[in-house]
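[Protein data]
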Amino acid sequence: PLLEVGLRQPDGSFEVILTSRGGFNYAIQAAEEFGQWYTIGTLMKVNGSVQFVDSSANLHPHRFYRALMVF
């Protein structure tokens, strides 16, 4: 999978794009510090590119993002 660099939106939310093949499920996780990851959403059966919007990004001064395959 590929989690593409995101863009902060005018409303303060943050958008990332996940690209994958094979119809897998992914947990989108965020952290303010490495080692303290929290699942903020799940994308189901991704086959191609899918947009994910972190609507609470404006509540955090900075965040790191990652995608993990879930079963």
Notes: The beta strands are 2-8, 14-31, 38-54, 64-70. The CA atoms of residues 10 and 34 lie 26 Å apart. The mean pLDDT is 92. The two ends are 15 Å apart (CA to CA).
